[in-house]
Amino acid sequence: MKIIAYGIRDDERPYVEEWSKDQNIEVKIVKDLLTDDTVDQAKGFDGAVVYQQKPYTASVLDRLAELGVKNLSLRNVGVDNVDADAVKRNDIKVTNVPAYSPAAIAEFTVTELMRLLRHTTQYENRQAKGDLKWAPDIATELNSLTVGVIATGRIGRAAIQIYRGFGAKIVAYDVFHNPELEKEGIYVDSLDELYKQADVISLHAPATKENMHMLNADAFNKMKDGVYILNPARGDLVDTDDLIKALDSGKVAGAALDVYENEVGIFNTDFGSFDAIPDDRLKNLMKRENVLVSPHIAFYTTTAVRNMVQFALNNNKQLIETGKADNVVAFN
Ligand code: COI
C-alpha cells in the first residue's frame, strides 16, 4: 500500500512520519497542494491524503480518477471546497475528519469572547502608550449573558460546555436536535427567536449553498442592540459589508472572526506589513478595537494537527483496504 500526502506543512510532517513508521506503510510527503500542476504525482499511489483551502476542482478530481486514485482523505472537517459533481461522477470516495479536536475551536471561541467582553485590545493599546487608567472600558460578565449557539454539532456542543462553566444561559438552534440538549430544553424553534434572546451569537455551522450570508442586515436587525458575533466556522456565513455597517451603527458591539469570506490566499500568509495586506475590508475590520480578527487558527493546536494527520491516514488506509471508512462524506 502506498499513500501520497499533499500540502504537508512542517508542523504536520512528524505526525506523518510517526504514522508511516508505526503502520509500516509508505507515505510520500509532498509540500505542494493538490492542483492541476501536482496531480500527476499521485500516479501509482492507492490513495491521497490532502488538506487545502483552495478548491479541489473538477479538473483535478477528473485527473485523479483517470490515474486510478479514487481514495481521497481530507485532513480537515469542511468539505465546501470539494467539487461534489466531480466526486460523484468519478465515484471517488472522500473521507474527512469530523472531530479532530472540537475543544480546540470551542476553547478559542470562548477565549475571544472573553477578550471582547473584557476589552483587552483597548487596555493593551492604552497601556502601550503608558495609560493605565480603568475607564471607560468597564466590562460585562459572561455569567449575566445569554449565548445563542447556532448549530449543535461537536464543536457547538463543546462550546456550550465551556459557556456553561462560566454560568452563561444558553439557547441553541439547529435543524437536527441533539437528544441530550433536547432534554435540557435549550433549543429554540427559529433563528429569529435565537436572535431575539441572545446577547452573543456563537456560530458553529458548516457552509452550505443555503446558509451563505445567513448573518446579513436582515438578521442583524432582528438581534439585540449591542450583540456580540463570534464566527470560528466559515467566512461565508457572514455578510462582511453588512457586519461592517452593523459595527458602525453600534448594533453589533463586537465581533471575533477567525474566518473571513475572502480568506483563501490571505490567511496563513506573511505580507510583511499591515499596509501590504491586499484586502481593504479585512483591514477595516482589523483596525477596530472591538473586532478580533485571527487567521483561521482556532483549530491550530498540537492535539488537533496530530489528529487531523493521523485520522486522515487511518481513513485512507481503511478505504484502500476495504472500500469503506468511518468518515466517508455523503455528497448530495
Ligand atoms: C476545517 O477543519 O474545516 C477547518 O476549518 C480548519 C482548517 C483551517 C484546517
TrEMBL record:
Superkingdom: Bacteria
Swiss-Prot/TrEMBL keywords: NAD, Oxidoreductase
SUPFAM superfamilies named in the record: Formate/glycerate dehydrogenase catalytic domain-like, NAD(P)-binding Rossmann-fold domains
Domain D-isomer specific 2-hydroxyacid dehydrogenase NAD-binding: 112-298
Domain D-isomer specific 2-hydroxyacid dehydrogenase catalytic positions: 8-329
Keyword Metal-binding among UniProt keywords: no
Any Pfam family hit: 2-Hacid_dh_C
GO molecular function, one term: D-lactate dehydrogenase (NAD+) activity
InterPro entries listed in its UniProt record: D-isomer_2_OHA_DH_cat_dom (IPR006139), D-isomer_DH_CS (IPR029753), D-isomer_DH_CS1 (IPR029752), D-isomer_DH_NAD-bd (IPR006140), D-LDH-like (IPR058205), NAD(P)-bd_dom_sf (IPR036291)
UniProt similarity note: Belongs to the D-isomer specific 2-hydroxyacid dehydrogenase family.
This protein's name: Lactate dehydrogenase
